[in-house]
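SEVERITY: medium
COMPONENT: batch folding queue
REPORTER: lab tech (J.R.)

DESCRIPTION
The queue accepted two submissions in a row. Attaching both inputs and their returned structure tokens so the on-call engineer can compare them side by side.

ATTACHMENT 1
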Amino acid sequence: MNEPFDPQKQLKIQKGIRQAEDKLVTKIQDALDDKSSYGDLQESQFRNLLRVADTTESTEVIKNFLRYQVGRDKKWGKGEQSLAAKIIRNIDKDIKEAAKEIAKAAEVDEYNQIWLELTRRYLGYGARYLVYKNKGEI
């Protein structure tokens, strides 16, 4: 999406993104609710991931950062059942598929920018929910 879409297509894309938000929120909450999949993950580590997402135009860079974090310590979990692996699977499967559907509905061929925007929102909702999990859970 290097060139801006025409206004009608952009409106359809924004509508599709808004409609996908509930699923994004529940996906990241489900991942974070499985406390056995990660260690003592702090909000600052999740915010670092969010910062990476906000400063790149590539979902691969985001996934690479997550893999790097897994290699550093156990806060993101280990192995295929880790929180990091779950987030990567969500990005590659559910979020990517939603981006493709939004692009199709908006009649655009390119879905990478939509995928990136959905991923950023997904991670942003995760950062908020982690604060709740760590400090405010009732």
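ATTACHMENT 2
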Amino acid sequence: MGNAGGERVRVSPRAVVAWGGLAVLVVGAFLAALGGLNQSLYGASSFVERYLEAIADDDIGTAAATPGVALDAGELEALGLPDDISTAMLRSGVVEAGPEDVSIVSDVANPDGTHSVTASYRLGTEIAESAFEVRPIDPLYGLLNRWEFADSPLAVIDVTAAHNPLFTVGTLTLDARANKPPEELANFTQVTPYLAVAPAVYQFHYESTLLAAAPVVAPIDAGEQAGVEVDAQPTAAFVERVQTKVDEYLAACAAQHVLQPADCPFGIEIDDRVTSEPEWTIVTTPQVTLTAGENSFDMPPTEGVAHISVEVQDLFDGHYYTLEEDRSFNLALAATIRPDGSIAIQLK
């Protein structure tokens, strides 16, 4: 007859020890792998490297979304920045050059759990370094380290758009009047702060038919507040259009058959009796030059010459003669660009 209760399987103490040892090895290997991941892929250095690589790849969305990068209202206030500061430059296509050949110079673990990470990189043609303070945040799955910047690496670039509210940075053209109060919209020069990812190189310039600003290359470090001036100046086409208007204006003056053409910079007084219509011609037209003034592009007083030809009778002895005389004059003006792109000229 069989044993109704069956037989107990006995596990030897040696087998228990073996299985226990294996479990310890598995746990140990897991913990070792986890520690390796937390030191490498999920380490503070890798966190910084990924941020810098995102800038280099022009993945500005990822860089800007990195924990600790965004600035809240309190942080903006502490930095003396308006809460509606422009974020227009936080997009792809704006950065001229990001950090390349990144290497970690040092990663120092501080007693409070933060890490001081210093990275070296090539920015354009220069080798540079930046220091970052990062701190731990809630781990991923409760196991893998996660980090954030203790101080945002975003830079603030104060752009002075001189003599023209528009400027171009990278492939993006911006209007420095955005978010400005109505009383400042007509200012000839606008100064506007912009948030920008950093470290990075930015190139500012502007070019249109009437205005052009020479390129300004600005390497910006993490956390830096820097100033850039985009100095728009009249193009040859602008000067040519103003010259055309000056020529037309003087031609209209010359077409007036009077001794003192109305609202014109030249004229003559004759004591004798005029016996014919005065004929004016422009001998020398003032050549337009424009420089930026306080509120407009100005032409300084510039000399021109008009010529009058008129028949006159001498009141003393009654004889008739033809008066031929050159009359020099000066012309100054201020030119501005209207919102529709046309040019407004104000004579001075």
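NOTES FROM REPORTER
Residues 56 and 328 are 62 Å apart (CA to CA).
No errors were logged for either attachment.
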